[in-house]
Specification:
Layout lengths: L4 E4 L3 E8 L13 E7 L1 H11 L4 E4 L2 E2 L2 H13 L8 E2 L5 E8 L4 E6 L8 H5 L2 H5 L3 E4 L5 H13 L3 E5 L9 H5 L3 E5 H8 L4 H9 L5 E5 L5 E5 L5 E3 L12 H16 L2 H15 L12 H10 L2
Parallel strand pairs: 1-4, 1-9, 2-7, 5-6, 9-10, 10-11, 11-12
Antiparallel strand pairs: 2-3, 7-8, 12-13, 13-14
Helix pairs in contact: 1-9, 7-8, 9-10, 10-11
The structure holds alpha-D-ribofuranose.
Length: 304
């Protein structure tokens, strides 16, 4: 099998509880509803890229449990090649507990499970897949040595590397950033990585550490694209009433990389990403609310 985009990342089973408001430390509150849906930043981004028409392969470590079987089904349904994803006998598939409050804000706790076992050896076993791709995309829910190995293989073959530095890690190793061509961060992640609170200053600072570009997503304030020797591109956000913001950042990134691979146009990719992110807020859960290419294009036209 071959793919244009290889995602080296996580799969989680998301358990979603809706609450009136997120509990304070020490507080117990009753949920309004419960649900379960496929998640994990890596898998979410892969699914959105595939829904945008990209040929995608997923390299995530999953367990030999029912949740792992669900992951394979999610990828098969999305047209994603999951045949290189290692299935581990003794480690359970990752799980996330997500609280969503009225207004759509959330709190997420991830139990990495099998995701924490993705190793450089697993990556090396997929060398032809990675070397034959156009772009390799990773996040920080899987071990850095595996991501580093994937990026080394990609760089050696002229494949673009993209890193979503989420969840936020102030101690991210410089070696990984140095192997990154395109860095995706939200405002919190940008501040944590750059050590400055202003997201625009953080974007400028991080650009010096990566190969090509930094994209800072700013929630309701839109997104900014920093490129060397090019003018800053700042786009405002679509105004939506969010039901659940879970996965909105993943939708942005999946749609962005799909468009970038298809057209090479980073500004257009930002627009696609913004629309995909807005649409992802319309209902509960991550991939369940992700739109396809036609719906994203229609949304952009309707809001032009
Ligand atoms: O970005 C949202 C995702 O973060 C959820 O699907 C959850 O699994 C965590 O990985």
């Amino acid at each position: 099998m071959s793919a244009d985009i290889v995602v080296v990342g996580s799969y989680n089973l998301d358990l979603v509880l809706t609450v009136e408001r997120l509990p304070a430390p020490g507080e117990t509150c009753l949920s309004l509803s419960r649900g379960r849906s496929p998640g994990g930043k890596g898998s979410n981004q892969a699914v959105q890229a595939a829904r945008c028409g990209a040929r995608v392969a997923m390299l995530a470590a999953i367990g030999a449990d029912p949740a792992g079987s669900e992951a394979l089904q999610v990828w098969a349904d999305a047209g994603i090649d999951g045949s290189s994803a290692p299935r581990l006998e003794v480690h359970p598939t990752g799980m996330a507990v997500i609280l969503v409050e009225a207004g759509g804000e959330n709190s997420i706790v991830v139990d990495a499970g099998a995701n924490a076992r993705l190793s450089p050896a697993h990556i090396e076993a997929a060398t032809p897949l990675i070397a034959g791709a156009r772009l390799v995309l990773a996040q920080l829910e899987t071990p850095w040595p595996a991501t580093r190995r994937a990026f080394e293989i990609a760089r050696a073959s002229g494949v673009t590397t993209a890193l979503n530095a989420a969840p936020a890690r102030p101690d991210l190793e410089e070696a990984l950033l140095a192997l990154t061509d395109i860095l995706f961060v939200n405002e919190i992640e940008a501040a944590a990585l750059a050590g400055v609170s202003d997201p625009m200053a953080a974007g400028e600072r991080l650009l010096a550490q990566v190969g090509q570009a930094v994209v800072v997503t700013r929630g309701g304030r839109g997104a900014a694209l920093f490129r060397r020797d090019e003018t800053l591109v700042a786009q405002g956000a679509y105004q939506v009433d969010p039901v659940d913001t879970t996965g909105a950042g993943d939708a942005f990134i999946g749609a962005f990389v799909a468009e970038l691979v298809a057209s090479g146009d980073a500004e257009r990719a930002m627009g696609r990403g913004q629309a995909a992110g807005a649409l992802a807020c319309a209902s509960l859960g991550a991939v369940n609310s992700f739109a396809d290419a036609d719906a994203i294009a229609a949304f952009e036209r309707a809001h032009a």
